[in-house]
Amino acid sequence: MEIKSAAVIGAGVMGSGIAAHIANAGIPVFLLDIVPQAVKDSGGDRSVVAKGAVEKLLKGEPAAFMHRDAARLVTPGNTEDDLEKLKDVDWIIEAVIENKDIKHALYRRLDAVRKPGSVVSSNTSTIPLEILLEGASEQFAADFMITHFFNPPRYMRLLEIVAGPKTRKDAVDTIRKVCDVRLGKGVVHCKDTPGFIANRIGTYWFQAAVNAAEDLGLTVEETDLVTGKPMGLPKTGTFGLLDLVGIDLGPHIAKSLLSTLPEQDDYRRVYRENPLQAKMIADGYTGRKGKGGFYRQTKTPDGKRIRETIDLKTGAYRPTVKAELASAKERSLKGLVTHSDKGGQYAWKVLSQALAYAASLVPEIADTILDVDAAMRLGYNWKQGPFEMIDALGTAWFAEKLTEAGLPVPALVTLAAGRPFYKVEDGRLHYLTTQGEYAVVERGEGVLLLSDIKRASKPVAKTASAALWDIGDGVLCLEFTGKMNALDDQVMALYRKAIEIIGDGTSGPYKALVIHNEGDNFSVGANLGLALFALNIALWPQIEQATAEGQQTYKALKYAPFPVVGAPSGMALGGGCEILLHCDAVQAHAESYIGLVEVGVGLVPGWGGCKEMLYRHTYNKKRPGGPMPPIAKAFEYISTAKVAKSAFEAKEMLILRPTDGITMNRDRLLADAKAKALELAKDYKAPEPLEIRLPGPGARTALEMAVEGFHGQGKATDHDVVVSGELAWVLSGGDTDITTVLTEDDLLDLEREAFMRLVRTPGTIDRIDHMLSTGKPLRN
Amino acid sequence: MPTYKAPLEDIDFVLNDLLQADNLTKLPGFEDATRDLVSSILEEAAKLCENELQPLNRPGHEEGCHYENGVVRTPKGFKEAYQAYVDGGWQGLSMDPKYGGQGLPHAITFVLEELLISANMAFAMYPGLTQGAWNAIHTHANDQLKDTYLPKMTTGEWSGTMCLTEPHCGTDLGLIKTKAVPNDDGSYSITGTKIFISAGEHDLTSNIIHLVLAKLPDAPSGVKGISLFLVPKFLPTEDNQPGQRNGVMCGSIEHKMGIMANATCVMNFDDAKGWLVGEPHKGMRAMFTMMNAARLGVGMQGLGIATVAYQNALTYTKERLQGRSLTGAKEPEKAADPLIVHPDVRKNLMTIKAFTEGARALGYWVGIQLDQADHNPDLKARAEADEFVALLTPVVKAYFTDMGYECATMAQQMYGGHGYIREWGMEQFVRDARIAMIYEGANGIQALDLVGRKLGQDMGRLLRRFFHPLAGELESAMEDTDLLEFAGPLAKAFGKLQQATAIVAQRGMKNPDEAGAASTDYLRIFGLVALGWMWLRMVKVANAKLAEGGNGKSGFYEAKIKTARFFVQRLLPEVDFRFKALMSGAKTVMDLEADLF
């Protein structure tokens, strides 16, 4: 069975977000909600609720739709007039209020209209499947399951599936597959227990984390400092995350868990009423969505914006102070939890409880430790899952310390008997089963992870900032390995090495190259720190040489006698975007944010980015006629540092070609890219160089006038004018005229000359300096 | 007996023709610091130095300070000379008018410092320390402390000290043991022993204000747990007169190699009453306010000593007849030619001349930038000047004082055996010059400061303040045929400096020992390039003056050009050697196991 259409009932934050994401996957979806009483009474649009929700989605940040065209796939309606339309729908998702009677009533109505074999799933987070199915028909029970999304549905990768004893296996498989492949989710199978996996452990952790901060007298900032990087729980920290998800959510989930959890559950022991949070909620301080939370932005009497933090003891706001704890500088988790200061004490207090709690819940809530670790990583953004963290501490050490502290040792930890929960054997990752044996961690079909390859092999070649891996079938994968995946001469050197190793792509063992990595971001561009240092000491010739080398390396990849496929995920900015522009094809993760942002640091793209954007827009068959439109488009995108907010937007900007692929699930990206590379490798021919003729000074003047206009209106700064002027010079072809054919190297010379003029301006150096010291662009 | 004449002509050239110090009058607060006023102040300073202070230099050296039961007496005549110094208002020259100072630019005190050192270094240190302590109090203390102490320190009625070093630690101040215990009245009781305290005790002023580093009871360990306290020798009375004696006593004075007339004291604090300056545990920050200014001052000591040693050597080599010129008698009517005909003697003279005149230009320029950093109303310009000063501070301190000592021995050498005889005074310059390489952060520490702290700060932002203007000037100078012979070698040396900078940063990031092993060579390269730059600029000015007819000083300008030529051809090549040594890396330095030495 295939899911060709879907419906979501309930257009709240979750329901509408789920509908948007189903539309992102290209699946048409109905979004239905009730007809409000006011409309019933006095008329008006009966689908106003669902329509309003779509409007809100289109305006909201972060964007729920990957491209505004996706919104057209959402058909809003209401549950009174439009239920009939669901008769052809393959999958109906219920996301209405958490009230079993309302849900039951809805299910009866759905069951009456839906087609046989269609799947109905609930997005409940608190009501057990068993209760949802009370009074349901046999057929309904066979077609029913829970699909629990996390907020916001487009961005949170976790999807918990709970199937009942009667649920059809093929229905589960179908939904699992569509969620995995089409929606890009990390699907975790849960048992029908309260809070499933992530919220069960997450709620416990929140409670233990808030308790420990109170008991040990840590400030909000100190708590978040330790929680963030050192403990590897979300970057926002404990209180920062509470602000993000909404402080008012906690009591709902707590109440639900307390009413459904087993009598002996440890959550009951750690649960405390929290008068401060109760007061904050009552006063509207529910977090970022409210008037503020544990942190808030406010203005001083003289209008200065300041950040304030709540004092956990008094409940009063005070200016935020940067926390400093020696323990937070510890590199290892063990170093942290054994540190004597209060940060170390805090980390141990929280982890000893939360990790033990998580360990005690397998197999009660999940069959394997894999599901638990995945749920916490994907659903709560923990850097490592609980079992991975216990491994970092050592199972024996952890058991011993729990015993010392008078805490019970979970059965699974005892079962491990000093062995790790995960181990690598024969180059493959294994995990400990509930039987106490090791089993291989199986990746699904179509999943290829570079991390698995790295476990099993040594790089074919490497430099200080990149490594080259054999990913099988004659395909090499180039991985950036520098800090933040920054690009430098070491990356360039490995590109050249890869060209040498692959050779003509037919006579040796290798025939194609994929550029991919598993970092949060593909690459945010060139190593600015190195560049700035070189700029500061006026090493102009070396900077020019590095620029020229980058240009020639990217060009060599473009014309190499073998296919090169880029496979980005996350941000691909500046030089990271330019490499994609030089690839023969790109297989992009849908959540790729690609753009030429060089002007933010006062530069023009210098590694062929201007050139390729000119080609893309010039050879775009759908473009308007005349020499100006392609230049104007490239100028618009580059001069405003526009970044595509998804792979779909990148296609619209022609950063991606129409033929480039998009993969929704990150874990499937490399396999898709590899398949693409192999496909291209059949009878591969390097591209023919393209001719281009540009109008020269006249076009430049036109662009400059436009910028002057923005400058006059205060929309462009002084240095924007300088940078845009150079960009206009490059894109218009310098001192050329429309009869002259420009070669690729001509364009590269223009880029480089403009680049070199800009790096010597104080305005550009100030921008780079500012970006490095503050992480924000300078508007000078 | 050595003599001294303030080099007013060269000073005028540097301040006015080269650096356009007049521009300082455009900064708020400096409106009065016109060229005329500055030159008349410097003429007066020259008189004081030449007539009052210099004659006391050798007698002070011979007599030294006297210690008896906690009381220190300075050599004969020092008290009167100090009185003349304070009566002339010299102490408050660049101090804040709010506290009775004259608020003149720092650049002028840089000149004054040079003159004072040339005339009498041991004497000059007494007011110099007051200036350092004054700066720290002015920047970090609360208003009450400022109002109580600064006016009397501005007049020179009271003097100041910096009490950092303890018997077991100097450079590594994180180890200090001196304790400060809070009293109920907001003051603190300070207990501990400090050593090497210059001007810690003496008979020149009615009160001595010690700035003391100590640890509070709850202090974190290391340098982040140090606080700064103000501890007066006499607690001020209600009407701000020296009152009750405080629990601070001089235990002894050191017997040392030079600066004999300056009292270097062991100071014992025994429940001495003091007040916190700045925030608790932030004493290092306050101390660096003292140190940074003091380091530049010490750099000027290198220049001062080299200048006076040069002047005397020059007189001697012109007068002393010894041997004949290698190319035939130059003064056949006399029994022998003067020493100055001999190439090796001339090489020594030229070396000192090229160093002192270049260093004067650089030192005063840094002084002017310090004024820009304090007074420029444009915050960006202010920050840039501050970065320039921060970058150049270790270079000025270490390079100038290393060269000060080298020049003093070179000058001594020209005297032959007489240089070794006390009454000729040359041995005193050698002795006095030596300490400048050691105190206020030994020169090895300065080199570490440069490569470890200044180089990498904000990805080299400080470097930009030096490298960019120099790169720009070189580019245009290379186009100018009159300048090419100077700009060419300097451009090459600058290229080496750029390369060394990149290499030190790169290697140092991977292995800090690499940066450490490169540091002193690197600092020397930096110093040489900086002086080369000054010489390029001086040639430009001299060329322009000569083109205008020389204004009756053609000889002076021609000498500048010839000295510049000597510098780029005979001194600047040291860059090549230093570069080669630096590039060889840390391995040979670190290779030998400690027990195999």
TrEMBL record, chain A:
It catalyses: a (3S)-3-hydroxyacyl-CoA + NAD(+) = a 3-oxoacyl-CoA + NADH + H(+). InterPro entries: 3-OHacyl-CoA_DH_NAD-bd, 3HC_DH_C, 6-PGluconate_DH-like_C_sf, ClpP/crotonase-like_dom_sf, Enoyl-CoA_hydra/iso, NAD(P)-bd_dom_sf. One of its GO terms (molecular function) is NAD+ binding. Pathway: Lipid metabolism; fatty acid beta-oxidation. GO terms for biological process: fatty acid beta-oxidation. Residues 6-193 form the 3-hydroxyacyl-CoA dehydrogenase NAD binding domain. Residues 195-296 form the 3-hydroxyacyl-CoA dehydrogenase C-terminal domain. Keywords: Fatty acid metabolism, Lipid degradation, Lipid metabolism, NAD, Oxidoreductase. The keyword NAD applies. Coiled coil: none annotated. This is 3-hydroxyacyl-CoA dehydrogenase. It comes from Nitrospirillum viridazoti CBAmc.
From TrEMBL, chain B:
The keyword Flavoprotein applies. Keywords: FAD, Flavoprotein, Oxidoreductase. Residues 471-592 form the Acetyl-CoA dehydrogenase-like C-terminal domain. Pfam families: Acyl-CoA_dh_1, Acyl-CoA_dh_C, Acyl-CoA_dh_M, Acyl-CoA_dh_N. GO terms for molecular function: flavin adenine dinucleotide binding; oxidoreductase activity, acting on the CH-CH group of donors. Its EC number is 1.3.99.41. This is 3-methylmercaptopropionyl-CoA dehydrogenase. Its cofactor is FAD. Residues 162-271 form the Acyl-CoA oxidase/dehydrogenase middle domain. Residues 41-157 form the Acyl-CoA dehydrogenase/oxidase N-terminal domain. Involved in the assimilation of dimethylsulphoniopropionate (DMSP), an important compound in the fixation of carbon in marine phytoplankton, by mediating the conversion of 3-(methylthio)propanoyl-CoA (MMPA-CoA) to 3-(methylthio)acryloyl-CoA (MTA-CoA). SUPFAM superfamilies: Acyl-CoA dehydrogenase C-terminal domain-like, Acyl-CoA dehydrogenase NM domain-like. It catalyses: 3-(methylsulfanyl)propanoyl-CoA + oxidized [electron-transfer flavoprotein] + H(+) = 3-(methylsulfanyl)acryloyl-CoA + reduced [electron-transfer flavoprotein]. InterPro entries: Acyl-CoA_dh-like_C_dom (IPR025878), Acyl-CoA_Oxase/DH_mid-dom (IPR006091), Acyl-CoA_Oxase/DH_mid-dom_sf (IPR046373), AcylCo_DH-like_C (IPR036250), AcylCo_DH/oxidase_C (IPR009075), AcylCoA_DH/ox_N (IPR013786), AcylCoA_DH/ox_N_sf (IPR037069), AcylCoA_DH/oxidase_NM_dom_sf (IPR009100). Residues 282-450 form the Acyl-CoA dehydrogenase/oxidase C-terminal domain. It is an enzyme of class 1 (oxidoreductase). It comes from Nitrospirillum viridazoti CBAmc. Belongs to the acyl-CoA dehydrogenase family. PANTHER family: ACYL-COA DEHYDROGENASE (PTHR42803), BROAD-SPECIFICITY LINEAR ACYL-COA DEHYDROGENASE FADE5 (PTHR42803:SF1).
